[in-house]
Amino acid sequence: MNSTPLDSNVDAVVCIPTFRRPDWLRQTLESVLSQKTDFPFAIVIVDNDAANPAGHAVAKAMLDTTDIPSTLEIEPSQGNCHAINRAFSSALDTYPSARWFLMIDDDEIAEAGWLQHMVETARRTAADIVGGPVTRTFDADVPASIRNHAIFGSIEGATRQVNMIHGSGNCLIARHVFERFGAPFFDLRFNFLGGGDMEFFTRCRLAGYKTWWCAEAIIHETVPSDRSNPKWLMKRSIRIGSINFVIDRLHMGAFAGVKVFAKNLVSLSLGVVRSLGILLRTGEIVPATHPLLMSVGRMAPLLGLTPRPYEAKA
Questions:
Q1: What's the domain count of the chain?
Q2: Which distant-in-sequence residues (6+ apart) come within 8 Å of 204 by Cβ?
Q3: Which of 231, 212, 221 is nearest to 286 (CA)?
């Protein structure tokens, strides 16, 4: 069921940006459609493959059979920030009564109760932002050194207030946060690098917004074999370093260039020490490369070598 414009009977909106994953999107959408809540919610899906919007077709076939309000969009400008911004903008405009806006990625599956837990936490704590755990399931058999790699780590522990969350794959954001910052919500400088979510939540932290962690709102992510091999993990470590550098440069204030350069030098020294420590402690090479490669990644943008993993081939 597609919503009518300015649908006023919705409290929360689940946003799902998608790009060339129609089969996975089907599973994601099934998990969202099966959520049981004590409040009305809607779904917004944005397909970022305008040339072949297979995800749009899958979503339409599924949503046409349900009474849950929904909005389907196709975003022609390629890049994850474009798709995410389109999803949030559409949700804000189409559902003016909605107070909370959630996001789940198109390779994730929400556990039963996920949506209720997220909104309940926001209600109870008056949180501006809520995050929840993303547990990983690997397509292929991988050694413990890969399963426990820092890249696959997450906030752990009980439901509580936290300083900030770092990713948008399982998040809730209150309407007033978007209204304060204005569009585009995710900085387009991160469109192909990634990390637009981390930069957004950094801005939220600096603005004084309150973030809570909801341990009960669990999402499961499938990690394909091409994202659990040493080459991909090492490239990801470099990219994380580049993201951290760009965010620091944006938010360090006066003399940011000098501060960031000094931080890069300290990071490189510490990266060597930490990598050697992990190698000596575990004997595992791939996890040991992570601190050093993040430090290398911080240097890459200075050399004009910023990674662009989200720039898809035509």
A1: 2
A2: 128, 129, 164, 177, 211
A3: 231
